[in-house]
Task: structure prediction
Amino acid sequence: MKALVLEQEGVPGQIRDLAPGDLPEGDVLVKVSHSSLNYKDGMALAGRRGIVRSYPMVPGIDLAGTVAESASPEFKPGDAVLATGWGLGEEHWGGYAEMARLRAEWLVPLPAGLSAQRAMALGTAGFTAMLSVMALQAHGVAPGGRVIVTGAAGGVGSVAVVLLARAGYQVAASTGRPELADYLKGLGAAEIVDRAATAAPGRGPLARETWAGAVDTVGGDTLAGLLRAAARDGCVAACGLAGGSALATTVYPFILRGVTLAGIDSNYCPQARRLEAWGRLAREMPADVLDGLFRVVPLEQAQGLSEEILAGRVRGRVVVAL
Ligand code: NDP
Result:
């Protein structure tokens, strides 16, 4: 079986020929058909600190395929499944291999109506977008409201724009790539906002109440700017750090406007919420729109794309075909 293997930190991965016996322990063996490239995969492939916990490592935080062998009563050979997170590609060998052995409780049955390729076109990025939408809705951000998605042309951002627009929100897409305005409007964005304006909405600790809700993939000054410009009882779902991990803010948005800062962790999200999110993705993400926001590459190209995604040059999503 072919696999991309990271042998040590800072050394690019190499395609290796492994035997299924080389795989780590687990009760289900999956024949992987597709994985994907997420920002975190880019970090692992580029040798950034703090992602890969042990070597050798097969990266790939997402995978989809078919059960080949199962010692679990939950799954049988032939079942179509997907897995995202749970430390795949970080602590446990992930999806950049033709076979993966993992624990049954990490698997999600492929939702009806979703192919393995489309599931990976969503992947952790799409799943995170849905978790963010669910957080906004749980905090009372109702359809019709004006919401903003930052890093909008990236993977999480693109899916979030589609989901929110389809659910009836007025979506602003915040981007540093104005040349992608047509792409973002095609996904459902009603307005395009310059990334710099999102990060600096006027002076002072509170800006004009602008956003009923926000999905933030950028962090740093952008997240601080969203909190300042959040409307009364608004909610900001913080899921990313593409622009920085520091957060300099004040308590005023929270104590004077009742703003909620909702944290999103897709990696160790509990199974019940996972199943709900994947069910909603299968129902709410139109296949024709999804098909317009990803491209498919062979495993051999994943390593070379790592710097592209870290530099914010990837549009939408990248599926890795095994
Ligand atoms: P992408 O690279 O596909 O998208 C990130 C986008 O952020 C870029 O396309 C770009 O959008 C914008 N961006 C990039 N660099 C900067 C910068 N320096 N300043 C401001 N904006 C920038 O990554 P993903 O969509 O896969 O992931 C987005 C973020 O979400 C990452 O930080 C990732 O780690 C995080 N994430 C978190 C998860 C969780 O569970 N919490 C799960 C999945 C992802 P544009 O060109 O439109 O401005």
Remarks:
- DSSP finds ten helices and 15 strands in the chain.
- The mean pLDDT is 97.
- The chain has two domains: 2-110+292-321, 125-263.
